Amino acid sequence: MHWLPVPLVERADVTEPDWSRHADRRMALAREWDELVAQVREMDGFEDFLRPPRVEQLREAATDGPVVIVNVSRWRCDALIVRAGEDVADVELDALTLDRAVERVNAYLDVLHEDQAAYLALLDARERREDGQLSRDEFLGAATKYEQVRTATETHLTGLLAWLWDVIAEPVLDALGPASPEGGELPRLWWCPTGPLTLLPLHAAGRHDVPGAAVFDRVVSSYTPTLRALLESRTRSTSAPATGLQESLVAVALGETPGQPMLPNVDREIAVLHRLLPDRLEVLSGSGATVAAVLDAMAARRWAHFSCHGDQNLADPSQGGLLLYDDLLSITAITARQYHGDFAFLSACKTATGGVSLPDEAITLAAALHYTGYNHVIATLWSVWDPSAVEVTEAVYEEIVADGMLHPGRSARALHHAVARLRERNLDRPGVWTPFIHIGP
User: Fold this and answer.
1) Average pLDDT over residues 360-384
2) Per the database record, which ranges form the CHAT domain (predicted)?
3) What is residue 354's predicted lDDT score, i.e. its pLDDT?
4) Are the C-beta atoms of 225 and 371 separated by less than 8 Å?
5) Which end of the chain is more exposed for a tag (fewer CB within 10 A), N or C?
């Protein structure tokens, strides 16, 4: 096979790029862009189009109480207190360092991992004992091991909450001044942690054996991923509901999920919802609780309750989510849609736990629901196995449901009241009451 020779091209015949012409074209396009943006900003309601939010605007996120942004860096750590109509106040956190925060988070995650592993081992031992595959002594050994791990978990959490109080919460609350509750109600406060602190329970910080030395004694805590998210949720909560959206609740009830441990309190939670919202409830259970069915029901209703298994991938948090009958309802799938919900209760495990590689991005199921349209979200920071935790669910709904309607604006205080009662009986067991959090206005 012969190749035809390629004729040589004289250098003079090669067209050089006209760089000056390309530069002129880019400058002209840039001027056209600026002119178009200026025209848009002259339209009513678009004055801030493509501009970063103004500080004056962001301060309105703190309309109902201060927002505390806890900043952690290798240079210094501060708490920025944002209040409506006031300058942002800075509280330097001298006792907090980035290295110490990372060390605390790693130890905390290790303890939670060991605790969950011990509980799952106990469930496996119980099942094998019932099937005759395990002796009584072997089962008692697994039970003893779990109790030892639980004791270590509670000891660790007690120390962690005291540390959070000493280095963050107490300096912040002291800077805010003494609380002056109206009608006996504590004031509201929103935590906006950054970096590794996004994984820690700031709302439960305290030396709980000392009266008044705990966040629970001073404020009703909520969380927000960002000031802007809180501001937008406030706007949504005062807007008229979307046309065609049903004022009803979809409850996902999966006491038994293929490949997962049994959840014994699901029926009890659903019974409460049937009693309080008999005419405004749709229950998806068993084979009916599929990813497609749940997503469709969420899009059609203002309220949602999830009583099922949840999981979180700390290395790839967007792949965390809810374990449904047929598949995982992932955070990625949730954020692919936009909702117009008022309230979501995540009675599932680890729905508010983010990732370790990019903690500032707060990629959790709870935050995903909040970002995509649910104004109020109640979730948990880690797996909740204690049966008394179902008391929180019942107590919250008892307080936020009245006259057959659900009132999401009461959810933060309702959660605080429910957890405070549980805390009174379990001061030495913070693992029972610490996980529950509220996100939203």
Assistant:
1) 80
2) 160-440
3) 47
4) yes
5) N
| Mean pLDDT in residue range 89-116 | 92
How does pLDDT run across 340-369, given as a tens digit for each residue? 889 999 986 654 444 444 444 456 788 888
| Helices and strands of the chain, counted as H and E runs | 14, 16
With contact defined as beta carbons under 8 Å apart, do 418 and 392 qualify? yes
Nearest-CA neighbor of 381 among 355, 420, 350, 412? 350
Q: State both tokens at 18.
A: 């006209």
Q: What is the CA radius of gyration of the chain?
A: 26
Cβ atoms of residues 304 and 250 within 8 Å:
yes
Per DSSP bridges, beta strands 281-285 and 321-323 are unpaired
Closest CA to 348 of 313, 375, 323: 323
| Structural domains of the chain, with CATH | 62-223 (3.30.420), 239-439 (3.40.50.1460)
- Tokens of residue 211, six digits: 């009266």
Within a 10 A sphere around the Cβ of 427, how many other Cβ atoms? 13
- Partners of 380 in the β-ladder: 436
Q: Give the whole-angstrom CA distance, residue 7 versus residue 22.
A: 30
CA atoms within 13 A on the CB side of 267: 3
**pLDDT at 4 > cutoff 50:** no
Helix ranges (H only) for 277-389 are: 291-300, 331-335, 365-371
Length of the chain: 441
Cβ neighbour number for residue 26 with a 10 Å cutoff:
10
In this structure, how many other beta carbons lie within 10 angstroms of the beta carbon of residue 45? 6
pLDDT digits (tens, 9 = 90+) for 296-317: 999 899 999 998 887 766 666 6
E strand or H helix at 395:
helix 390-400
Q: How far apart are the first and last CA of the chain?
A: 77
Choice between 141 and 156, residue whose per-residue pLDDT is larger: 156
Task: Give the pLDDT score at 349.
Answer: 62
236-257 b/e (C-beta count within 10 Å ≥ 16 → b): beeeeeeeeeeebbbbbbbbeb
User: 412 by DSSP, 3-state: which?
Assistant: helix
More confident residue, 83 or 362: 83
